Amino acid sequence: MLLENRVAIVTGGAKGMGRGIALMFAQEGCDVVVNALHIEGAEKVAEEVRALGRRALAIKADISSSAEVNDMVDRTIKEFGKIDILVNNAGGVTGVTGGDTETATEEDWDKIININLKGAFLVCMAVIPHMKKQRYGKIINVSSMGAVSPSVSVLHYHSAKAGVLGLTLNLAFELAPLGIYANAIVPGPIETPFWDSLQPPGPERDAFFKALTKKEIPLGRVGTPEDIAGPALFLASGLSDYVTGQIIYVAGGQPLSSHDATFLSSGGRPGG
Ligand SMILES: NC(=O)c1ccc[n+]([C@@H]2O[C@H](COP(=O)([O-])OP(=O)(O)OC[C@H]3O[C@@H](n4cnc5c(N)ncnc54)[C@H](O)[C@@H]3O)[C@@H](O)[C@H]2O)c1
Fold first, then answer.
1. What φ, ψ does residue 66 adopt, rounded to 5°?
2. What is the pLDDT of residues 56-84, one digit of tens each?
3. Tally of domains within the chain
4. Most exposed: 37, 90, 105, 229, by fewest CB within 10 Å?
5. 92 CA to middle of ligand 1, Å?
């Protein structure tokens, strides 16, 4: 198994990609802390991890609060004694609409930057001292294609996700001599509850995804949480022991230049 007796924290692990990552890690022998905003969802995934024969701890914590993050890390150390892997996956645009120069507000900017960028920073700052002690750690940060190739204007979210890439590269530079790795995954469109607040599941969403994939995704489909979990497993395991400071695009071949990618722009919806 690739992660035998490792301990991972997966933020936002109650659903979507975080759940996919938590379960794939558990299948590979990893104990998992499943963090989320709501304890019920985190507890459900923790149960699924236990059913795979691994230990799990569900922790409700808002990653944009340093007090809650510090408490989560303290509880993890108390329960498992170490943290080998951190997946900074929590994020999204829930509760915010728009985000272009006509609609973005200072309030939304603060909210989205706090969840998507400051949150990853806070969890890193709390976890890294423990990784330093053991001179080992694998940090995986989740960004977005919108950070590097926006096909719709969402200033706060895309800026936050671009910031996640800067955070990753700086961490990799500083921490490589200490045996701590930092890499980023940049997902394209992945079908998860992330999309529910933008477009509820149903025929309209199906048609939207179909048109989107036809126009912008050479592999011809939207991604699944497992499509993200595979590369996350690679970055969490010894398979990537000569890989740090890298950005891996997991986007079905979606081109980096969005000049031709006008479909989302015409829809005016955030995402991707
Ligand atoms: N789904 C996509 O198409 C897509 C594309 C690019 C990037 N992303 C990014 O990938 C990551 C995972 O997305 P997903 O699609 O699985 O989303 P999701 O909405 O299905 O799950 C997000 C999880 O994050 C948690 N979360 C949100 N804010 C939090 C906070 N402040 N503190 C703790 N937990 C919090 C939620 O409770 C939930 O468990 C996010 O960072 C998202 O921005 C998603």
1. -65, -35
2. 999 999 999 999 999 999 999 999 999 99
3. 1
4. 105
5. 5
194 lines ligand 1 (CB under 6 A): yes
Nearest atom (ligand 1) to Cα of 190: 3
Q: Is residue 86 part of a domain?
A: yes
Predicted model pTM: 0.95
Whose tokens are 């000049």? That residue is 259
Inside any domain, residue 60: yes
The CB of 80 under 6 Å from ligand 1? The reply is no
Residues 203-259 have pLDDT tens digits of: 999 998 999 899 889 999 999 999 999 999 999 999 999 999 999 999 999 988 655
Please give the backbone phi and psi of residue 69, each rounded to the nearest 5 degrees, phi first. -65, -45
Q: In terms of residue numbers, what domain contains 77?
A: 7-267
**Residue 272 within a domain:** no
Nearest CA to ligand 1 atom 19: 194
Q: Is 28 exposed, middle or buried (CB count within 10 Å of its CB: 0-12, 13-18, 19+)? A: middle
Q: What CATH number is attached to the domain comprising 73? A: 3.40.50.720
Chain-centroid distance, C-alpha 23: 15
Determine if ligand 1 sits within 6 Å of the CB of residue 62.
yes
